[in-house]
Design goal:
The complex is a heterodimer.
Chain A (H helix, E strand, L loop, with lengths): L5 E9 L8 H4 L4 E2 L19 E10 L3 E2 L8 E3 L2 E3 L8 E2 L3 E7 L2 E2 L12 E2 L21 E3 L5 E7 L16 E10 L1 H12 L5 H15 L1
Antiparallel strand pairs in A: 1-13, 2-12, 3-11, 3-13, 4-7, 5-6, 8-9, 8-10, 8-12
Helix pairs in contact in A: 2-3
Chain B lengths: L1 E8 L1 E2 L12 E2 L8 E2 L19 E10 L5 E7 L2 E2 L12 E2 L20 H4 L14 E3 L5 E7 L15 E10 L1 H12 L5 H25 L5
Antiparallel strand pairs in B: 1-11, 2-3, 4-10, 5-9, 5-11, 6-7, 6-8, 6-10
The chains are: A alpha+beta, B alpha+beta.
């Protein structure tokens, strides 16, 4: 596609689309939402070319509600399925987390500097609702520099959140919102990075204006 | 600088468990006992107490807990509790009702009347914002302590409550940690914007110095 400067982009992943996810196989495993082989996928790993710059501004996944383990088997609590068997009782929803990986480095770490599962769906829910509101804001944003490969990895631990052996629609989802800077805007994004200025559309426009003013 | 979160719940397969597992089940939380969400022994834990190295600076921006069972969260830096009563005595910290996790969840798990419908009957929103933020300076140890004054109702994994706590912080590492220290000395709030501002001011200062040096050399760099 022809360069179109900067563009707001989103990617939504649903475990039930494409090759529907087998719950038992993916349980507790990290799955790429881009090329993990289950759910809707893309043709190749997400990467930036030499003339692209990506700023990840939000990530989210299906929320979880922690409840009372005595709730009857297979009831729906606030839109989330709760099982009542050992290992799933007391958890409504998939108990899902989403991690960002740049090349081979995980972004989210525990305080002991060991990579963790990522952002809980309970902290950054998708979709958002009155019942599930975010208490996490991805700020500062995550930068994917030109030539880097990036991924969003989802992990879930509650098999009781699924009606069947394979995922059904909306049972496990993930969402990424990012801005793609292309061509000259990617160069400006690199320049802003060197200057220690946050990369966002407003600052890219400011830099363009300052260049025009310098020429005038 | 990187935005980080940590979520804890009383779900475990074994005591002192480091990773979440699909076989986790709820364990009892004793009333009026402080549980360190990092190394408290129940739920998911980390390998060592949370601390900053000499080249790290942490800014805690949000803490929250399940609004059920009168749960609360406290921040402890080294041996000092951050939240205290007006008479300077100890308290449990920020109530989960004031800073709920997840945001929008229910406040009651009354086991005598609980049904799936009753869980969905209300949405607790936050009435507390952790501002100003809490700073963990290089070399300090910090704990997030969860306390419930009621305790979970049962030792059975099939009839007890699941509670959780959450902390959101920004980790400044390397040069950004040095800048964070500098901002602290200057009395400027430490946040990503101000760290960026300080970097820009350093770059501008260098540029001015170069221009002045070139002018002193008769216009030659």
């Amino acid at each position: 596609m022809k360069n179109m400067s900067m563009r707001s982009q989103v990617y939504e992943w649903d475990a039930s689309l494409g090759t529907a996810m087998t719950v038992a196989t993916s349980l507790g495993q990290r799955t790429s939402i881009f090329v993990g082989g289950v759910g809707n996928n893309i043709t190749k790993p997400a990467e930036t070319t030499a003339t692209e710059f990506v700023v990840i501004e939000d990530i989210a996944c299906t929320p979880t509600l922690f409840t009372w383990a005595g709730i009857t088997d297979d009831v729906v609590v606030r839109g989330l399925l709760q099982d009542a068997t050992t290992g799933t009782a007391g958890i409504a929803g998939p108990r899902a987390y989403v991690q960002v990986r740049i090349n081979t480095t995980d972004y989210f770490l525990d305080p002991d500097n060991i990579p963790n599962d990522g952002i809980p769906g309970a902290a950054s829910p998708y979709p958002r609702s009155i019942n599930f509101q975010p208490c996490f804001n991805l700020y500062p944003d995550v930068y994917v520099l030109p030539g880097q490969v990036w991924d969003a990895l989802i992990t879930f631990y509650n098999a009781g959140a699924f009606v069947g052996g394979t995922a059904a629609a909306n049972e496990l989802m993930a969402f990424v919102k990012y801005t793609l800077y292309d061509g000259p805007d990617a160069l400006i994004a690199n320049k802003l990075l060197e200057m220690g200025i946050s990369i966002n559309p407003g600052n890219v426009d400011w830099y363009k204006r300052s260049l025009l003013q310098a020429q005038a | 600088m990187r935005s980080q979160v940590y979520e804890w719940s009383n779900l475990q397969t074994n005591a002192n468990q480091l990773r979440r597992l699909s076989s986790d089940q709820p364990v009892q939380v004793t009333a009026n006992r402080e549980y360190d969400i990092f190394t408290g022994g129940i739920g998911n834990n980390i390998t060592k107490p949370a601390e900053t190295t000499a080249t790290q600076f942490i800014v805690i921006e949000d803490i929250a807990a399940s609004p059920v069972l009168s749960g609360a969260v406290q921040i402890r830096i080294n041996t000092t509790d951050y939240f205290q009563n007006p008479d300077v005595t100890n308290m449990d910290g920020i109530p989960g009702l004031a800073s709920p996790y997840p945001r929008g969840c229910n406040s009651t798990l009354d086991v005598t009347v609980l049904t799936a419908t009753s869980v969905g009957s209300e949405n607790i929103l936050k009435s507390f914002d952790l501002y100003p933020d809490v700073y963990v300076l290089p070399g300090q140890t910090f704990q997030i302590l969860y306390t419930t004054s009621i305790g979970t109702t049962s030792t059975s994994a099939l009839s007890t409550e699941v509670v959780s706590a959450f902390v959101k912080y920004t980790l400044y590492d390397g040069p950004d940690a040095l800048i964070a220290n500098k901002l602290l000395e200057l009395g400027v709030t430490i946040n990503p914007n101000n760290v960026d501002w300080y970097k820009r001011s350093l770059i501008e200062q260098q540029q001015r110095s170069r221009v002045a040096a070139a002018a002193a050399n008769g216009g030659q760099a």
